[in-house]
Each structure stands twice: as structure tokens, then as C-alpha cells.
Amino acid sequence: MKITHTDILWSKTLPEYTQFQEMVIEGINVPNQPLHCLEFGIGNADTSLCLLQAYPEARLSIVDEDARALETAYANFPIDLQNRTHTIQSLFQDYQTTETFNVCISALSMHHLKRSEQLQLFEKIYNLLTDNGVFVLGDLIKSEDFDYQMSTNMLYDSHRESTLSEKEKDAFFSHVTTDSYYFYQLTDIMNWLRDTGFKAVDLTWSHRSLAVIRAVK
Fold it and tell me: In the chain, what are the domain boundaries?
């Protein structure tokens, strides 16, 4: 699995993108304790920045295979945020650490993993979290209603036509036709998390093909 630089175009291709990012951060909801957070997938670093700004005492470790994305994002962070951030170039499934975390987040990254890889990563996340630790997963999902999924796809296609330049369209469509995507139904993902051992798994926000899930160890 590799998340490429073209993933930054999600911010222009999803009309609910800003609200989605806000809902991922709101889903953390760990009051009265400093955050030691692990993030899988950096994209354009919007989620990372939102978290660091919302939680001024948080420390953040970010795992991504794409060295360029990590370097670019880190270089653009203000110095005070750089001091609270650690980046790790690694495949999600190959990441190893002796650290534990009280929060893990992932936004618009898991859909690059097939089912077996997601199950493996969910287990890894569960083991890396402290007791009562929180995993917030935000991603694109597959609707159980085929007609609704088709109408949503048409809406997103129309939105891309109005927001992307011709160069961006070429880059985006090259990306989505050459990379691997695995979209699963919401009920399946939530059941996988429960089967992993998470004691509370809740849908905290959804809109069209986007969903935010909060799982507590």
C-alpha cells in the first residue's frame, strides 16, 4: 500500500472534506489527559494539523510509506508543531514500536488496504493502545444501497468537474485508476473492530460516502 502525493486532491474532490476533518478530531474526545497519538497516513497533513492545533499538549507520531509526503508536511509545520511531531516512513502493516498510545487516528487511508490487511492493522492498533485508548477511523465507505451509491458517485463527479483544473483532473483520474482501492460497508468495518476486541464501536458521523467511527479499547 502506498499513499501518493495525489491524495492531497481529496480536499478538492469531496465537498464535505472540511466537515469530515472536524468530525475526525471531534471523535477523539479524550478530556483531561495529554494525547500521545499515532496516525496512519498523512495525505496533505490536514488531519495532523487539526489535531495538533486542537490539542496543544499532544504528541503525534505519523506513519506513512511516502517519504516525500512526510518530508513536505513536516517542513511546512510551524516550529512548535514540529517539536511535537515524529514521522516514520513505513508500510502500515510493517510498522513496529515499543511505545503505546492513548489515541490512534486514520483519515482517508484505510481504503488502500484490502480486508486481510485492515484486519491485521486493526489488531496492531488495538495492541498499541493503552486501556480505554481511542481509535478514530474516518474513511470512504461502500453504501449498502446501490442506487444511493450511484447518485453519490455522480454528485462527486460533478463536484470534481467544477473544482479541479484539467491538470488536476488528469492527475486524480490517473491516481484512482492505477492505485488499489478497497471500499467496504460500514457494518463490516464496525464488526471487524468489535471482533478485534474493541469494547465500544460507534458511528459518530456520516455523510454520503464518508464515515467516522470511534472505537474504544
Answer: 5-216
Give strand ranges (E) for the chain. 36-40, 59-64, 85-89, 101-107, 129-140, 200-207, 210-216
DSSP of 108-169: S-GGGS-HHHHHHHHHHHHHHEEEEEEEEEEEE-B-S-HHHHHHHHHHHHHHHHHH--HHHH
- Secondary structure element (H or E) that encloses residue 10, with its range: helix 10-13
Q: CA 157, CA 182: separation in Å to the nearest integer? A: 19
pTM for the whole structure = 0.89
- Cα Rg for the chain, rounded, in angstroms? 17
User: For 5-216, CATH number?
Assistant: 3.40.50.150
Residue 181 phi, psi dihedral angles, 5° rounding: -130, 135
pLDDT tens profile 162-215: 888 888 777 777 666 656 788 999 999 999 999 999 999 999 999 989 999 999
Q: Which residues of 129-146 are buried (b: 16+ CB within 10 A; e: fewer)?
A: beeebbbbbbbbbebeee
Cell of 45: 497533513
